[in-house]
Design brief:
383 residues; alpha/beta; Aspartate Aminotransferase, domain 2; Aspartate Aminotransferase, domain 1; 7-stranded mixed beta sheet; 4-stranded antiparallel beta sheet
């Protein structure tokens, strides 16, 4: 049983596998690298995927969407492509290393960094972020949903705060894309980083960055673009100049199919299904002696994941017992977010994280909950 969809969604809908195979077997060519039929067909696949991304996130201009290899690549491009020494950035203690490590690297190059500490439930105060603003604040960069405890940030209020301060708003949608609606144009999001392999149900090695029209972005990778071939410098044309090298055509085709699957099913339906499963798991685990669940108390303030610990039980050992004894896949440890665990009080041991997917059933969650009880009892007995 696979319950680690927050890392990578699995299984994918059948149409995703079919789209990947079609791109590999029937097309094969590189998009934008030739005038023959197969290359043109490859270009059509990429263009249609870009258009579907625009529809999915309510983006008016699909040319502002850059395909990347993952959300990490998108975040690095967004940060390194806009920030310079002397700029000030505000982020929070609830961020993944995909956002924090590029910021730490930029801090070593003269970018000023403020990390606002969230509450012990993972909730971030807009007022605390507002108090961190400075005259040279260039950007507020945050995740939409915590990958550890599922706490949802108030992105509408944060976007408004950014615009009043004249700063850019970078949203890391790694745990929200495919679960929560994100209306880029309505919220006036300046930069949106998205992985393709999680909630969007696409293959690994896919992701994207949306860049608002007023944002001046510098390329961080130089190379062939299929256009402006006589220029010695990397062209700044969107999106070509930021997609140097060969596209991951099978991955983009699969990502397109995953998004179409979600649009047909409806985001509200997907969210409700997974939220029901998370609430079911929470209710079962709260009855287990010594189990602590982390994150906001109100289920409407969180989504995607559920993290917990059991007193006297190592989280990694519990996850191993679930795997070996019951063939249940969950994530244990720090989840690449050490500051988050310090905030929640779960450092250094981390938590056990469960994240159901679109195909997970109530029966599977019941089986998981029973397995947790048995594993905890076994570990405590042997201690």
């Amino acid at each position: 049983m696979y319950l680690d969809n927050a890392a990578t969604s699995y299984p994918k809908p059948e149409i995703v596998y079919e789209a990947v195979l079609h791109a590999m077997r029937d097309v094969g060519a590189s998009p934008g690298r030739g005038g023959y039929r197969l290359s043109l067909e490859a270009g059509r696949i990429v263009f249609q995927a870009r258009e579907t991304v625009a529809r999915f996130f309510s983006i008016s201009d699909s040319s502002r969407i850059i395909f990347t290899h993952n959300a990490t690549g998108a975040l690095n491009l967004a940060l390194q492509g806009t920030l310079a020494a002397g700029d000030h950035v505000i982020t929070t203690s609830m961020e993944h290393n995909s956002l924090l490590r590029p910021l730490y690297a930029l801090r070593n190059k003269g970018v000023e960094l403020s990390i606002v500490t969230a509450g012990p439930d993972g909730v971030v105060s807009v007022e605390d972020i507002q108090q961190a603003l400075r005259a040279n604040t260039r950007m507020i960069a945050v995740s939409h949903v915590s990958n550890v405890c599922g706490a949802i940030k108030p992105i509408k209020e944060l976007a408004e705060l950014c615009h009043k301060a004249g700063a850019l708003f970078l949203l890391d949608a790694a745990q929200s894309a495919g679960y929560l609606p994100i209306d880029v144009d309505n919220l006036a999001i300046d930069l949106l980083a998205v992985p393709g392999h999680k909630g969007l149900l696409g293959p690994g090695g896919t992701g994207l960055l949306y860049v608002a029209n007023h944002v001046r972005l510098k390329p961080i990778i130089q190379g062939g673009t299929g256009t402006h071939s006589t220029a010695e410098e990397q062209p700044l044309v969107m999106p070509d100049g930021f997609e140097a090298g060969t596209h991951n055509l099978p991955g983009i085709a699969g990502l397109h199919a995953g998004m179409e699957f979600l649009l047909e099913r409806g985001l509200a339906t997907v969210y409700q299904h997974e939220n029901v499963l998370l609430n079911q798991a929470e209710q079962a685990l709260r009855d287990v002696p010594g189990v602590t669940i982390y994150g906001p108390v109100d289920p409407s303030d969180r989504c995607s994941v559920l993290s917990f610990t059991a007193s006297g039980v190592d989280s990694a050992l519990l996850a191993t017992e679930l795997d070996h004894g019951f063939d249940i896949a969950v994530r244990a440890g720090l989840h690449c977010a050490p500051l988050t665990h310090r905030t929640l009080g779960t450092f250094p041991g981390g938590t056990v994280r469960v994240s159901p997917g679109w195909s997970t059933t109530r029966e599977e969650i019941a089986f998981f909950s029973d397995a947790v009880v048995q594993c905890i009892a076994k570990i405590r007995k042997s201690a």
